[in-house]
Amino acid sequence: MQVDWSLTDALMFDMDGTLWDAVDTYARIWNEVFLRAGREVHVTRESLIRHIGMPIPNIIASMFPDITPDESARFSAELAGEEPVLLARYGGTPYPGVVEGLERLSHKYKLFLVSNCDRHTLPIFMTCIGITPYITEGLAYGNTHKPKGDNMLLLKEKYRLQQPLYMGDIDADGQEAHRVGLPFVHARYGFGQTDDCELAFDSFTDFTEFFLNCK
């Protein structure tokens, strides 16, 4: 895909592996919530990180192939109720340059979040790291039950964007962006690897400087 980056009018971001790392917190939450739902498991950072970026039902099915539909539904319901409280309590770690970079970028671009998380997670994330004033809107799988690409299009149409891009850290992010015609920028510092991108950066600071210089 040939891209004139000077025409970019909006930046859309994945959350996990792109803007922050909260995998240790997620593992802790999953262990606590599964136990409350009546099943003792041992979710680790290593076992969970391979699934980050997938919708919650897909993660459950992949990590626990023997789980029954009733157990999965019970865990999902427990997670929806408990995760907002526990995530706000335990938090995560933004990557270097993210908070400062988003503040600077917000003066030149509309900024959006598109994630496969629950509907409560994006507002908590924004509050935790103090970026709520910089984000025009966040849209999650939990809001629409649609894949990332469809949510990118919803935002593009709602805000009449001409050339938004999507920044994420795994190959599936690029596939979703390209499926709906958006250029994909790879966060190489995140959780995944891919060559299917129009640009790639080793730090969020480098990303920030590049796009500030485009305008």
UniProtKB/TrEMBL annotation:
Transmembrane portions of the chain: none
InterPro entries hit by this protein: HAD-like_hydrolase_sf (IPR050155), HAD-like_sf (IPR036412), HAD_2 (IPR041492), HAD_sf (IPR023214), PGP-like_dom2 (IPR023198)
Gene Ontology molecular function: phosphoglycolate phosphatase activity
Top-level taxon: Bacteria
Recorded catalytic activity of this chain's protein: 2-phosphoglycolate + H2O = glycolate + phosphate
Listed pathway(s): Organic acid metabolism; glycolate biosynthesis; glycolate from 2-phosphoglycolate: step 1/1
Pfam families hit by this protein: HAD_2
EC number: 3.1.3.18
UniProt GO BP: DNA repair
Family designation: Belongs to the HAD-like hydrolase superfamily. CbbY/CbbZ/Gph/YieH family.
Protein name, as recorded: phosphoglycolate phosphatase
Protein source organism: Barnesiella viscericola DSM 18177
